[in-house]
Amino acid sequence: MNTMKMTPQRLAVLQYLNGNTQHPSAEEIYRAVSLQYPTMSFATVYNTLETLRKAGTIQELWIDPLRKRFDPNPLPHNHVICIQCKKIVDVAVEQIMELPDRLSEEFEIVNSQVTFFGICSACKKQ
Amino acid sequence: MNTMKMTPQRLAVLQYLNGNTQHPSAEEIYRAVSLQYPTMSFATVYNTLETLRKAGTIQELWIDPLRKRFDPNPLPHNHVICIQCKKIVDVAVEQIMELPDRLSEEFEIVNSQVTFFGICSACKKQ
DNA sequence: CTGGCTGCAAATCTTTTGCATCCTG
DNA sequence: CAGGATGCAAAAGATTTGCAGCCAG
Questions:
Q1: In Å, how far are A23, A46, B98 from A57, measured between CA atoms?
Q2: Using the beta-carbon criterion (under 8 Å), do A92 and B111 form an inter-chain contact?
Q3: A94 in reach of chain B (CB within 8 A)
């Protein structure tokens, strides 16, 4: 985990993300942080998210087909996503997954995660 | 699994995908099929892929952050992706994953998959 | 002063959409 | 003839990039 210069914009992004369980997209983060920093630009949001990711502070999720989502928890953990409304919820890791031998020769694994696809109760009602 | 009208374009997409282990993107599929059908349009590729997905013939993967990828194997299975070159390789399912009780009340799971993130041997050499 | 950060606008890339035309049954 | 499929172009969305100006050490 590297150090990084702490600017007001970066702090604002961090604070918005911190403890946030919604797995927001860049656009949602931009909208929220804009309230405090009306001059905040999209480029800065993307730059900041990339910097935070490289620093190991946050995690980028590629689970939603429409956009990247961001998770303040950088530790490996699992997710369940509603295939209708794209709501994402954290799932605790219950077992470590391993590659079959044949593939573990070809790939050096740095992380793994389980994704559950389902329908949330709110969407099921409709 | 529904029936669908079999047009030459759809057949060409299906044949390109069939047995293909590369998990190609829409653009790669378009380029390949264009060789046979020079008038084939992007819209038709996307329409066809969506039709095939709805018919349960293929699977859409949301693993590569840059683009959707398509898998001719519609059955649940796992993947390993190289975080550098984005190469994707199939991984056999070795155990069925389940949601913790608390969440299984909120979500009705339709599928789950494990994604391994790693570096492939080709990228490791560099 | 210098390097990094920001803000803005434009560019890029993927995917979707509207619409006219074309086939096929 | 009707409905679905195709091709084309434009639109829409997400993300990246170039660049000028700013700020802090």
A1: 14, 14, 28
A2: no
A3: yes
The pLDDT tens digits for A15-73 are 999 999 999 999 999 999 999 999 999 999 999 999 999 999 999 999 999 999 999 99
Shared-domain flag, residues A56 and A12: yes
Q: Give yes or no for residue B1 having a pLDDT over 60.
A: no
Position B93 scores a pLDDT of 92
Q: What amino acid is encoded at B121 in this protein?
A: S
Q: Is B1 inside any structural domain?
A: no
Instruction: Give residue B51's identity as a one-letter amino acid code.
Output: T
- Tokens read off for A75: 């530790």
**Which residues of chain B does A62 touch, with a Cβ-Cβ cutoff of 8 Å?**
62-65
Of the candidates B92, B112, B120, the beta carbon closest to that of A107 is on B120
